[in-house]
């Protein structure tokens, strides 16, 4: 399976949350909560709207692009 393409804004939010070690990235609701708290609006919105793609991203990787697929 291929990597999931996301915008740089979405990626930056996910990476900030991952590096913080505040939550397991599999805890999708907590990832959304932290993204909202930290002002990563694009990240929070993308994770909310792309449940299956987010799960695939965790296990198959991410590709940063101008626009998400």
Overview of this structure, please?
It is a single chain. Helices cover 61% and strands 12% of the residues. The protein is mainly α and 69 residues long. It has one domain (4-65). A two-stranded parallel ribbon has the order 1-2. Helix 1 crosses helix 3 and helix 2 runs antiparallel to helix 3 (41-49). The radius of gyration is 11 Å and the shape is globular. The model has no long low-confidence stretch (mean pLDDT 94).
Question: Quick gist of this model?
Answer:
The chain has 69 residues and is mainly alpha-helical. It is 61% helix and 12% strand. It has one domain (4-65).
How is the topology of this model organized?
Blueprint: E1 4-7, H1 8-20, H2 28-37, H3 41-49, H4 51-60, E2 62-65
Parallel strand pairs: 1-2
Helix pairs in contact: 1-3, 2-3
Which key features would you list for this structure?
69 residues, mainly alpha, two-stranded parallel ribbon, 61% helix, 12% strand
The N- and C-terminal alpha carbons lie at a distance of 15 Å
Instruction: List SSEs in N-to-C order.
Output: EHHHHE
Radius of gyration over alpha carbons? 11 Å
Helix content: 55-70%
Indicate the mean pLDDT: 94
Number of helices: 4
β-strand percent reads: 5-15%
Number of strands: 2
Regions with pLDDT < 50 over 5+ consecutive residues?
none
Shape descriptor reads globular
The main pleated sheet reads as: 2 strands, parallel
The largest sheet has its strands arranged as 1-2
Structural class: mainly alpha
Q: What's the structural domain tally?
A: 1
